[in-house]
């Protein structure tokens, strides 16, 4: 049976920027082995598999090497595809049932807003291995539910960071990866800048990581005293994430653009 697949660039309004994700809207159930094989074949940071249920859509995310518990950019891509293909009316919100519970998506003009769980990090003393792996000044370290957050001294340090990926894989923590962040440079149109590295799950650098902003949002809200923030992820592709923290939830806003449609034979 043929299976449609759509590639979407998320957290951007321009093709070939943001973070690409593949989306498969399933007409019938598929097993995990098949999903993992498709994700490996697509070889993007995430491939999303969506299947209609009575109350919404079941959503699963796979990297080329494993299934993950939470992914922002592939959720954004999945919502974009469901609206674009007419599976859901453009004025209707979408309920996704996932390994991280119920997530919702709604439209705000040309933007898509995702309702995700907030991630409040716990401050830890400096991890010596981090300094060796990142080779940038470290001002603060927090452990979130998914990632290690490292604040550095300035925007340029984030952009110039060239981690030792082998050392990142041997950190004495159980988190999936490391987020490097700093306050935005003076005069920027955004509040903070970040980059994200996940070599343990087969992604050396993720272009734009929605789920990381569940932690980045709570961190910078406390530091800056602002509920509404704009983050810029300064990968080679780059992308913007609007963040609104409201207690135990975080609203993540982004744009998306379709770049490819095809069929798996």
UniProtKB/TrEMBL annotation:
Pfam families listed in its UniProt record: PhzC-PhzF
EC code(s) of this entry: 5.1.-.-
Organism: Aneurinibacillus soli
Family classification: Belongs to the PhzF family.
Protein name as catalogued: Putative isomerase YddE
GO molecular function: isomerase activity
Keywords linked to the UniProt accession: Isomerase
Cellular-component GO terms for this entry: cytoplasm
PANTHER family: PHENAZINE BIOSYNTHESIS PROTEIN, PHENAZINE BIOSYNTHESIS-LIKE DOMAIN-CONTAINING PROTEIN
């Amino acid at each position: 049976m043929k299976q449609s697949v759509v590639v979407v660039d998320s957290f951007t309004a321009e093709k070939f920027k943001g973070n690409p994700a593949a989306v498969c809207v399933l007409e019938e159930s598929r097993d995990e082995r098949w999903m993992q094989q498709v994700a490996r074949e697509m070889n993007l940071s995430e491939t999303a598999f969506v299947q209609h249920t009575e109350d919404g859509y079941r959503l699963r995310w796979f990297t080329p090497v494993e299934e993950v518990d939470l992914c922002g950019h592939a959720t954004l891509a999945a919502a974009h595809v469901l609206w674009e293909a007419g599976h859901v009316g453009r004025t209707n919100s979408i309920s996704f049932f996932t390994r991280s519970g119920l997530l919702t998506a709604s439209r705000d003009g040309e933007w898509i807003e995702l309702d995700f769980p907030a991630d409040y990090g716990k401050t830890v003393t400096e991890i010596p291995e981090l300094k060796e792996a990142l080779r940038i000044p470290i001002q603060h370290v927090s452990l979130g539910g998914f990632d290690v957050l490292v604040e550095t001294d300035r925007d340029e340090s984030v952009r110039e960071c060239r981690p030792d990926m082998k050392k990142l894989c041997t950190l004495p923590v159980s988190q999936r990866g490391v987020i490097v962040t700093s306050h935005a440079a003076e005069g920027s149109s955004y509040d903070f800048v970040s980059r994200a590295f996940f070599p343990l799950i087969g992604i050396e650098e993720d272009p734009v990581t929605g789920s990381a902003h569940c932690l980045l949002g709570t961190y910078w809200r406390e530091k800056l005293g602002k509920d509404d923030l704009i983050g810029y992820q300064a990968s080679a592709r780059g992308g913007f994430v609007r963040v609104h923290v409201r207690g135990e939830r975080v609203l993540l806003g982004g744009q998306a653009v379709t770049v490819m449609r095809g069929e798996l034979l």
